[in-house]
Automatic annotation (TrEMBL):
One of its GO terms (molecular function) is DNA-binding transcription factor activity. The keyword Transcription applies. GO terms for biological process: DNA-templated transcription. This is LysR family transcriptional regulator. It holds the Pfam family HTH_1.
Length: 295
């Protein structure tokens, strides 16, 4: 008699996260989806196996007997999968190091430097994985993560600080009225409609506090979901954006962007994060190379 088909993997993954974390919201955060998407996947799984997996307990959730049995089985299966994948990735001296990186850092900083990396660290093979949102504490599926941020960091991480983040306003010389805007003081600039991004709401106030305009609320114009789109808009002449210096340095050197107000340090750092229990010998050369490039 053939074995019954397994339910969809996405549904099992959503259930395992919700059961382990005890919350649809926290499961959604870990999986980078909405809690509604997790709930829909759990319903798909319940329909597939023909039994309820959760029941309401006040404002929270409680596993049914069937849910508890499936949680234990799913947790063991996913742990075995993760272990097998890590073993496969690390087998052989020429296996790729999987580096997670926010899309904006990947597109505007890391990719242009890959030829230099290949020449200076010829034995290191990277597999770059674009990532949006918070990285999982386990760095699931990754060997390391390159990101800009500040602590506190997840307890399982070892964090190597590479450079202090520096930010500043930038604009295209093709922006209408560019000469007038570029001559404005920091307080006057904040009274103009400036471009901003939902992923870095603190960027303009952080710059203002260090540029002699503390306490002045920026006048926010067009907003963008991600930093990459914000910088593309600035390069296209749509307004003044706030940006990490390293992500716009090449554009400034090529004359595509201007930075008349300069850049200031923030409390954040560029960091390379790895798991504390991972002593892969490739991390130190990579961290050193990244720090050199950022310096």
């Amino acid at each position: 008699m053939p074995a019954p088909p397994l339910p969809p993997l996405n549904a099992l993954r959503a259930f395992e996260a919700a059961a382990r974390l005890g919350s649809l919201v926290r499961a959604g955060d870990e999986l980078h989806v909405t809690h509604g998407a997790v709930s829909r996947q759990v319903r798909v799984l319940e329909e597939a196996i023909g039994a309820p997996l959760f029941e309401r307990a006040g404002r929270g959730l409680r596993l049914t007997d069937a849910g508890a049995r499936l949680r234990d089985a799913a947790a063991g299966a996913f742990d075995q999968l993760r272990s097998a994948i890590e073993t496969i990735q690390r087998s052989g001296g020429d296996s790729a190091l999987v580096l997670g990186c926010p899309g904006s850092l990947l597109a505007r900083w890391m990719i242009p430097r890959l030829p230099r990396l290949a020449g200076e660290l010829p034995t290191l093979t990277l597999h770059l994985a674009p990532h949006e949102g918070a990285f999982a504490p386990s760095l699931a599926g990754l060997d390391a993560a390159l990101l800009i941020g500040s602590g506190p960091w997840p307890a399982p991480w070892r964090v190597r600080r590479l450079a202090v983040e520096r930010i500043g306003p930038v604009l295209s010389p093709g922006l209408p009225d560019a000469a007038r805007i570029a001559a404005l003081s920091a307080p006057a600039l904040l009274r103009e409609a400036v471009l901003h991004t939902a992923s870095r709401p603190q960027a303009w106030p952080a710059w203002a506090a260090r540029a002699g305009a503390a306490g002045i609320e920026p006048r926010l114009g067009t907003g963008f979901e991600h930093l990459y789109y914000l910088l593309e808009a600035a390069t296209a002449g749509l307004g003044v954006a706030i940006a990490p210096q390293e992500l716009v340095a090449d554009d400034i050197a090529a004359g595509r962007l201007l930075a008349p107000w300069g850049f200031v340090d923030t409390d954040a750092h560029w960091v390379l994060a790895t798991r504390r229990d991972d002593d892969d010998a490739r991390f130190e050369p990579l961290a050193g190379w990244l720090a050199q490039q950022l310096g």
